[in-house]
Amino acid sequence: MLLDTASLYFRAYFGVPDSVRAPDGTPVNAVRGLLDFIGRLVHDHHPDDLVACMDADWRPHWRVELIPSYKAHRVAAETATGPDVEEVPDTLAPQVPIIEAALDAFGIARVGVAGYEADDVIGTLTARATGPVDIVTGDRDLYQLVDDARQRRVLYPLKGVGTLQVTDEAWLREKYGVDGPGYADLALLRGDPSDGLPGVPGIGEKTAAKLLDAYGNLAGIIAAIDDPRSKLTPAQRKRLHESRPYLAVAPKVVKVASDVPLPRFDPALPKAPAQPDLVEELARRWGLSGAVSRLSSALLP
Q: How far apart (Å, rounded) are the C-alpha atoms in residues 231 and 218?
């Protein structure tokens, strides 16, 4: 089980009231929400391995070089040497170190790699895995990793933590008319304002799905631009032709990496907190006794 950690703690932050605070008044709603979410996942799914994948760089320079608008609207401050500063709610940013400390104290593997997003870590671990993989995320971009033959699926939270949409190939085909790899092509054609991806003007989701159905994949669509026998409309042909520079670089930006140089780590789900004294200290300091107790109970064999 691979967690898109930032996606999940953002959801927890907005899903749990900010009246949930530590004894000193510090908001801990995202921390409690995430710990409860993990406890529920462990209890319901019993994964052998659990990895909290982290955004060591939420806006990698190599993606921005290809498409400068990539996540540009979410930049709070640019930096010359490290990752740009992301615009994050004032009361969420201080909770991230608490989340990281709690995951470490429980012994839950936490993996991030400089220059890469959590999506890329997930993509690499998914590519390396020899057994079934459940990806837990609130980010539809990871639908591209769905693969029934290799038992790769996405668990997408719909409401709180109790209702998960199980995304497999049948669901993708019914909803979007594509399979997992086809979703990446669909996304780059359609564009995604939330990620600053412009897409191809005039090509929305339904048109993109029809084009992929007709020509197989992005390469087939590009080949059709120059094929006078293809059934592209004049407007589609013109728009796609004018978007060639974008279409040449968009796949590398949209598709998650599968070759991230990961550090060595133990992905095994712990059977009990790795540092019980530290877990108790964190629970006491931040007023998280209930969430800590629930996660600890979920870990028990």
A: 15
